[in-house]
Amino acid sequence: MVWNLKSYFNNGNERKYKEANETVNRFVMDVIKTKEKQNRYKTGVDLLSRFMALSLDLGFNDDEIEETWKFLRDIIISFIFGGKDSTSTALTWFFWLLDGHPQCKHLIHKELSMLMTSCHHTHPLNLTFNDLNNLNYLHAALSECMRLFPPVPMNSRLTVDDDVLPDGTHVGKGWFCYYSAYAMGRMERLWGSDCREFKPERWLDGNGVYQPCSQYKYPVFNGGFRMCLGKEMAYIQMKSVVVAVLHEFEIEVIGGGGTVEKNGGSAV
Fold first, then answer.
1. Domains in the chain and their CATH numbers?
2. Phi, psi of 154 (to 5 degrees)
3. pLDDT for residue 209 is more than 80
């Protein structure tokens, strides 16, 4: 009742929310329209430019284009808000674990140095999308970090009808089903007796190439029809941050980094 009154009279928290929402929407729309006026979306390689180029190729009229820009605005905002907390959480755990495993840090530095030498880059900010994709050990280290400390440790779904899970478990309509990515990442029957150890090598084949595992064994980005749309973008963002930080700084965690003794218990 209080919320309805605040919303109706545009007062208190509801007024602040609407003003903040308008500010964010206006900012994103300004970015979109600036790209349009300057035709920068035609040469840009960022996600927004690609969306804009694809939309204009469909031949919309002026009214439809305005609605398209609003649609793009909502997409961009959802990408920003949907990934900012989970990505920053993953990176926090990553640097903590890295400080406790100097050998892993050394291998990341070695891989980055070799890549920059082969590509003739002088700074990691010059690395391209394909360059970042070639950082197999770093990709494995990030995956291993999120196995132990998933940004969303527990998730739930509401059943819309009676169903039976693959193992024969019955779930009724309206039930909440929870799963814990945190617990699954520490199960010996899924990951072996070393499940509590931070071992990026478990994700690499004999040639050092990253090998993804089943999304149902590793549900950090959900799975099936619910697979996170920003999964690949999240990896690229995290790789970009890691290489930029490690190139300029030496990370030292107060109290020491993450070790097997510190990173929590296992789930049988």
1. 83-248 (1.10.630.10)
2. -140, 140
3. yes
